Amino acid sequence: MIKKTVSCFLLLLPTLLWANISVTIDSTPGGIAQITFESKQINPKAFYGNVPLYVQSLDENKYQALIGLPLMTKPGSKRITIQGNEGGYAFIEVVNQNYPDEYFETSVNVSDNQDSSSVRIKTEKALFAKTRKTFSKQPLSKGYFVSPTNGRLTSVFGVNRYYNGEKGLPHIGLDIANTLGAPVNASASGRVILVYDFYYLGKTVFIDHGQGLLSSYSHLSEVNVIEGQTLRKAQELGKIGTTGRSTGPHLHWGVFLNQVAINPELLLL
Ligand SMILES: [Zn+2]
């Protein structure tokens, strides 16, 4: 019965892509790789390691799995496991990417966490890791994402950051500077899964877009949504701020796919 309905849709529409998310494929560390495969199963599953992937229907029995690639991924061939497919697995080819360097001079010792906030930082790291593992079976958004705020791009994804000459963690989001109090909007429809005031990220909202696709909005001055709330694409969720470890009013926008931070620009048209 379900199969018949799908066939009817196929007669009316050129493809089923209208119900899908749209991304730019970029098989580099921090990017999004893809595989297409055939399966006679309804809702077939695919995995990178043991982490479930975003799978969407392209055509009858034809599916696409999207794979978020960790920044630390070494170039080369990677195996994707597919359930309900004859071969059982497929390979993607990850190619190298050179991200730019950024240098900061600061009076704060960035490697020193032996202060009163270290317990807080540890707790928050665990909360962040747990949130990143959210996987809802249903897709909760479609099409391209929209930029969450207007403003000036001040730091791109993946840059290698050096503090007083010492290498820090790479930048796993996009920084968009704007005036304090400017609106910040949901980049796609979804459900608010976390509202939290982090030591480093400040006031932050996490949105679940389904199937392991999440977005985060940090350093907010104000949050006007609550956990569990469903948001439309471009619905306001808060205001630009400089809470947490921040040097001025800006949004740190993060996107996660299969638990991996990826370049948010790949979701924009
Ligand atoms: Zn940032």
Structure, described:
This protein is mostly beta strands and 269 residues long. It has two helices and 21 strands. The strands form five sheets. Strands 9, 12, 14, 15, 16, 18, 20 and 21 form an eight-stranded antiparallel beta sheet that branches. A four-stranded antiparallel beta sheet has the order 3-2-6-7, with no helix packed on it. It has a three-stranded antiparallel beta sheet with strand order 1-5-4, with no helix packed on it. Mean pLDDT is 90; it is low at 1-18. Zinc ion (ZN) is lined by residues 155, 171, 173, 175, 252.
SSE arrangement:
Elements: H1 2-12, E1 32-38, E2 46-48, E3 51-52, E4 54-59, E5 62-68, E6 76-82, E7 89-94, E8 101-104, H2 118-132, E9 152-155, E10 160-163, E11 166-167, E12 174-177, E13 183-185, E14 190-198, E15 202-208, E16 213-220, E17 222-223, E18 230-231, E19 236-239, E20 250-257, E21 260-262
Parallel strand pairs: 8-10
Antiparallel strand pairs: 1-5, 2-3, 2-6, 4-5, 6-7, 9-12, 10-11, 12-20, 13-19, 14-15, 14-18, 15-16, 16-20, 17-19, 20-21
Summarize the structure.
This protein is mainly beta and 269 residues long. Helices cover 10% and strands 38% of the residues. Zinc ion is lined by residues 155, 171, 173, 175, 252.
